[in-house]
Amino acid sequence: MARFFVRIVVPAFIILCAMTGLSAAADPRWTVEKPVSGIIPGDDGSAIVTVGSTMNYLDDNGTIVWTDKPEDSVSITADGHYVAAGGPYAVLFDRNGKKIWERENTGDSPDASDPLRVRISRNGNLILTSTASSFHTWGISGVMIGGNTSRSITRFGEGFTDATVSPSGDEIILFTTRGIYAVNRSGYLFREDDDKTDEEDWKCSTGILSPDGKTVLCASENSLYYGYPSGTLLWNKRIAGDEITGIAMSGGTDPIIVAGSLDGKVYLLDTGGNVLWDSKLFSYRTGQPITVSVSRSGAYLTARTLDTKTMQGAVFLFDRKGSPVWSIEGSDAVGILVPDGSALLIGTSSGLSSYAVADLVTAPAATVTTIIPVTTARDSQVTTVTTPRVSQTAPSTPVSQVTVKETPVATTLPVTTQKSPVSAVLTLLALAGIEALSAGRR
């Protein structure tokens, strides 16, 4: 009997202890049942705009303050006081949902093949509406400040692939496949890239400014381009094995650059263009776009893609060193870090959840769908973790409908709990005990 106890009961008890220790996972601070396909947070997460079947404005407790029809393009000020939205036309809301102004025709002539992009400066001083062919700028009161066309601005008459506004609203950067251009609030060109040779020009399919507005990052195909808004290109490098589909930059004294690619990897670089590490999100190649976000301090970053085996969205949280911290997989899951790094927002077809990053960092690993990133260090000083945490299934507990306009309510829910492994192991222990007793009688 002692031999059976050692061979069966003790190992089962060890398994029980291990599985019990892994069964807990971080719960969201709150969850609201509203389908989400996109998330736009203010700087500290005190205001959050989501888009899906509706556009919803939430505070940092998950209370829906107001709702409106969905829009194609949404931008929010740092303090969440203003929300600019664009679809067939441009609209500006205040934080209470009051429509300050609406422009059915901004002069940018959006159509299905050339949608209207809307950007608002972090301080709310300037709203930019743009398409590939033209742009216009607006004040908070709705007065048009200026505008121009791609044919007048660019050297080769190429269209704008992207556009962004400086934090102060004093400068606009226009991206093209053959250069970048800086214009003032009135739309007049005052700077362009210095190098006139096409081979050394910026080539931008998408572009962003750093949080302080002092540097520019853009991507085209599998290469990154980095420099100053003045047009000075500091470096351009081919870093990925396929097209780059997402880029982000942190601030701080030691900023980092993050990029995601169709090659299935997320990359982290310093501002010198050195790839410090890359991480393959799945052991197989999905061939799906990867979008990324990073906290302003650069302490944490996310990558989101589609798991082609389960056909569900997957969101990964990494620390700066490339160590996998947490991951989640759910129906149409999308995710983004609040810029101040305090929270990770996860949206699915069933709702929006807010997780405190501090809880995710300290939480034991969950025990459901395993998502195994493979991290490769590019720098001997970078420490990586080769045994990542496993993922938690997205919350799916049915909840009551949230009343929005009549009685704005935050729905705070517990996450759907994992099925405990304890009962299965207890069954195993019981069977082992019976077997041991039977052996003793024999």
Secondary-structure blueprint:
Blueprint: H1 2-22, E1 30-32, E2 38-41, E3 47-51, E4 55-59, E5 64-68, E6 73-76, E7 82-86, E8 90-94, E9 99-103, E10 117-120, E11 127-130, E12 134-138, E13 144-149, H2 150-153, E14 162-165, E15 172-176, E16 179-183, E17 189-192, E18 206-209, E19 216-220, E20 223-227, E21 233-238, E22 244-249, E23 256-261, E24 265-270, E25 275-280, E26 291-294, E27 300-307, E28 312-319, E29 324-330, E30 334-337, E31 343-347, E32 352-356, H3 357-362, E33 374-377, E34 392-393, H4 422-441
Parallel strand pairs: 29-34
Antiparallel strand pairs: 1-32, 2-3, 3-4, 4-5, 6-7, 7-8, 8-9, 10-11, 11-12, 12-13, 14-15, 15-16, 16-17, 18-19, 19-20, 20-21, 22-23, 23-24, 24-25, 25-33, 26-27, 27-28, 28-29, 30-31, 31-32
What would you note in describing this structure?
With 442 residues, the chain is mostly beta strands. The protein has a single domain (2-441), classed as Methylamine Dehydrogenase, Chain H. It has helices at residues 2-22, 150-153, 357-362, 422-441, and strands spanning 30-32, 38-41, 47-51, 55-59, 64-68, 73-76, 82-86, 90-94, 99-103, 117-120, 127-130, 134-138, 144-149, 162-165, 172-176, 179-183, 189-192, 206-209, 216-220, 223-227, 233-238, 244-249, 256-261, 265-270, 275-280, 291-294, 300-307, 312-319, 324-330, 334-337, 343-347, 352-356, 374-377, 392-393. It has a 5-stranded antiparallel sheet with strand order 22-23-24-25-33, with no helix packed on it. α1 (2-22) runs antiparallel to α4 (422-441).
